[in-house]
């Protein structure tokens, strides 16, 4: 009986770690973005997770209004969209913290152009 109980406790611990290790990025977010000389502002971003690790959704902000696509793994996510204002694809790469907030970098053509913090609105 001791062995079976240990196996059950170990299995529960592994399942708990799997749940904790993966944040849910699906939903509506407000991203507070700072882009150096380009200024700062808020963007409204809606993201949906797919079972294959892909992200889809929309971006509405100073840089663009339109669809996003990307990926997520565990607490990390990345998505891109085209900005006609800048004339390049913009990529947001970030991490969701234990408290449910996000933060990360904004890049254009592979160069860091800013940072963001994010919070879910739903």
Question: Can you describe this structure?
Answer:
There is one protein chain. The protein is α+β, with helices and mostly antiparallel strands and about 120 residues long. It has a single domain (about 25-120), classed as Lipocalin. The chain is about 15% helix and about 55% strand. The chain has an 8-stranded antiparallel beta barrel. It is globular, with a radius of gyration of 18 Å.
Provide keyphrases for this structure:
single chain; 122 residues; alpha+beta; Lipocalin; 8-stranded antiparallel beta barrel
The CATH H-level superfamily is Quinohemoprotein amine dehydrogenase alpha subunit, domain 2
Distance between the termini: 45 Å
Radius of gyration, rounded? 18 Å
The ordered string of helix (H) and strand (E) elements is HEEEEEEEE
Query: Can you identify the CATH class?
Result: Mainly Beta
Mean pLDDT: 86
Helix content: 10-25%
CATH architecture type:
Beta Barrel
**DSSP strand content:** over 45%
- In total, how many domains does the architecture comprise? 1
Instruction: State the strand order across the main sheet.
Output: 1-2-3-4-5-6-7-8
Alpha plus pi helix count: 1
CATH fold category name: Lipocalin
Low-confidence stretches: 4-20
Q: Characterize the main sheet.
A: 8 strands, antiparallel, barrel
Shape: globular
Number of strands: 8
Structural class: alpha+beta
């Amino acid at each position: 009986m001791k062995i079976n109980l240990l196996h059950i406790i170990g299995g529960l611990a592994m399942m708990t770690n799997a749940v904790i290790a993966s944040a849910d990025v699906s939903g509506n977010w407000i991203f507070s973005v700072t882009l150096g000389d380009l200024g700062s502002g808020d963007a409204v971003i809606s993201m949906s997770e797919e079972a294959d690790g892909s992200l889809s959704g929309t971006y509405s902000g100073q840089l663009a209004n339109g669809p996003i696509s990307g990926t997520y793994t565990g607490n990390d996510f990345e998505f891109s969209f085209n900005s006609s204002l800048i004339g390049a694809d913009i990529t947001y790469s970030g991490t969701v913290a234990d408290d449910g907030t996000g933060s990360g970098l904004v890049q254009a053509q592979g160069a860091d152009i800013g940072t963001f913090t994010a919070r879910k609105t739903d």
